[in-house]
TrEMBL record:
DNA-binding region coordinates: 37-56
Keyword tags: DNA-binding, Transcription, Transcription regulation
Domain of life according to the entry: Bacteria
Matching Pfam families: TetR_C_46 (PF21943), TetR_N (PF00440)
Source organism: Actinoallomurus acaciae
Alphabetical list of InterPro entries matching this protein: DesT_TetR_C, Homeodomain-like_sf, HTH-type_TetR-like_transc_reg, HTH_TetR
Residues annotated as domain HTH tetR-type: 14-74
Designated name of the protein: TetR/AcrR family transcriptional regulator
Length: 217
């Protein structure tokens, strides 16, 4: 039970673990893993240094916690169906929501992107799985539930990378209207899928379903 303050109100509970994850996410998004110290993480979080060992064992444990936290938040977002009456609207709404979320959680997103290019196999696996889940949601909406054709897999991975770079540019500059970014990403996906189907009609996607993603010009 919390100890009440004078006047009958309770002292607010401070989630020091969450503070450490937030501070670490911000620092890991700014600099490489080896350049960030546990001392400065604790200082930025405003908590005692020993709490890092208490909650995470060491810096790598804290680093993994930041990646897991970002991944879980994004999975929760992806699990919520986007609004829209037709596939094109749902696609654009999903992309818009994704960009907005990443913009509001820029530190965590940039930390995940930096981690994905690193050499830690466990971290790399988390990031790769997270990035593929977004593509998998789109493929399921297109009726692809079984094994993904290699060409379709390559096409979707390429598109996810394109979307990530659009978001990174947006976070750094904020000088392009978000609606334009959404249109770029949606049209790029449609063009990518159409090209993949042209190259190999047996990729498992109905061309009519691809056309429904295009929407009005």
């Amino acid at each position: 039970m919390n100890t009440p303050r004078s006047g009958g109100t309770e002292a607010p509970r401070i989630d020091r673990r969450a503070r450490l994850i937030g501070a670490a996410s911000a620092l890991f998004s700014e600099r490489a893993y080896d350049e960030v110290t546990t001392t400065e993480i604790a200082e930025r979080a405003g908590v005692a240094y020993g709490l890092i060992a208490h909650h995470f064992t060491n810096k790598r444990g804290l680093y993994l916690a930041t990646i897991h936290a970002a991944a879980e938040d994004l999975r929760a977002l992806q699990a919520v169906p986007p609004g829209g009456d037709v596939p094109a609207d749902r696609l654009r709404n999903a992309i818009d929501r994704h960009i907005e979320y990443m913009d509001h959680h820029a530190a965590g997103f940039l930390a995940v992107m930096r981690a994905g290019s690193g050499s830690d196999p466990e971290v790399h696996a988390i990031v790769e799985d997270l990035r593929w889940q977004g593509a998998a949601h789109i493929l399921r909406a297109l009726g692809v539930d079984g094994p993904v054709h290699p060409l379709l897999r390559a096409a979707m991975r390429g598109w996810v990378g394109y979307l990530d770079e659009l978001i990174i540019d947006h976070i750094h500059h904020h000088d392009v209207d978000r609606a334009h970014l959404v249109r770029l990403a949606a049209d790029a996906l449609v063009a990518t899928l159409r090209t993949a189907y042209f190259l190999t009609p047996g990729i498992g996607v109905d061309p009519a379903a691809i056309d429904l993603l295009a929407g009005p010009a």
